[in-house]
Amino acid sequence: MPTPMNESQQDECHPEAPAWFRWALAQPVEAREIAVAGTVIRYRRWGGAGKPGLLLVHGNGAHSRWWDFIAPWFASTATVAALDLAGMGDSGQRADYTPESYGADIRAVAGDMDAAGPIDLVAHSFGGLVGVVAVRDRPDLFARVMAIDTPYDMRRRGSAPPSFDRNPAKTYYPDFAAARARFRLLPAQDCRHAFILDHVARHSIKRTADGFCWKFEANPWNFPGFDRGFWNMLRATVPILPRPMAFLRGADSALCTSETEDDWRRLRPEAPIVVLPEARHHVWLDQPLELVAALRALRAGWRAPSA
User: Fold this and answer.
1) Which are the contacts of 142, defined by CB distance < 8 A and separation ≥ 6?
2) Residue 70, exposed/middle/buried by CB under 10 A (0-12, 13-18, 19+)?
3) Mean of the pLDDT values across residues 182-202?
4) Which of 25-29, 169-173, 237-241 has the lowest mean pLDDT?
5) Relative to the CA of 60, which of 87, 88, 129, 292 has its CA 20 to 30 Å away?
6) CA distances from 80 to 4, 103, 143, 230 (A)
7) How far apart are CA 255 and CA 29, in angstroms?
8) DSSP tally for the chain: helices H, then strands E
9) DSSP letters along 196-247, please?
10) Domains of the chain: which residue ranges?
């Protein structure tokens, strides 16, 4: 399992961080875990138990701490959780990764977070792909799905997103500062908020016997379960997923463009589509409070099924 970092290094707040960001990081949060098929899945929970549920799922190579400055804005009225998918963040590893195993991670946390009733699922990019699998297999656990910058039809681009290295080499750095200096977003993009990028980067690093490296042990695109058949399954499943869906994207996203909106409309003609101005693929790194407002508006004005 990942070795915990020196907390003073990880939790140091960037000097340019504004009051709203510092407020979010100061809110109470619980660190929790659950075993899924022998693998420890770790997640964070805000807002306590017994409220309507909101489950946040990160993208490929990311982790739950990407949501640290988003989740607290919902905690007064919701039981909010953000998990680390297997092989990412502080969760354990597996010998094999499949859409179903990631779906099981999401379902397990949904069932363990002690929310009241079915849960709203908010998932980014790769998280939105495997989130569909979670809802497909246990729709009773979920109320609605809000997919952020998630392309469900990649035929315009090929069988897998081109932004990720399918055979990444493990790189070790001599110290925390050297690793922090090498942090990059995938797909590559600038980030206008240095304090956000700094927070995400600091929590992306772990110490091992060989040095400092990223909290990312497995690229799912290396595994046979994520071949072209995976995309065929998504195109067949999204239109019939038995829960309401909404789609959000960054107006300047390199991965989800206006053509992606056409795909979404074809797959789910009834689904709301929200485009956030001046945001790229990693939407809430560019427009964090705007994303909070968009999700609040969707959840308030968009009715979930009664059963």
Assistant:
1) 110, 118, 119, 120, 121, 134, 135, 243
2) buried
3) 89
4) 169-173
5) 292
6) 23, 18, 14, 29
7) 32
8) 10, 10
9) HHHHHHHTTEEEETTEEEESB---GGGSGGGSHHHHHHHHHHGGG-SS-EEE
10) 7-299
Residues 6+ apart with CB under 8 A from 24: 68, 69, 70, 71, 72, 73
What's the pLDDT score for residue 170?
82
- How much is the pLDDT for 160? 47
Give dist(CA 109, CA 131) in Å, integer.
Answer: 12
Q: CA 84, CA 56: separation in Å to the nearest integer? A: 10
CA–CA separation, 268 and 274 (whole Å): 14
Distance from CA of residue 229 to its chain's centroid?
A: 23
Whole-number Å distance between alpha carbons of 171 and 212: 8
Q: What is the CATH number of domain 7-299?
A: 3.40.50.1820
Percent of the chain clearing pLDDT 70 (strictly above) = 89
Rounded CA separation 259/299 (Å): 25
Report the distance separating Cα 71 and Cα 229, nearest Å. Answer: 34
Give the confidence band of 302 by pLDDT, cuts at 50, 70, 90.
confident
Token output for 63: 């982790």
Contact by Cβ (8 Å): 182, 159: no
Distances (CA, A) of 17 to 12, 22, 24, 195, 199: 11, 7, 11, 5, 10
- What sign for the dihedral angle of Cα 142, 144, 146, 147? positive
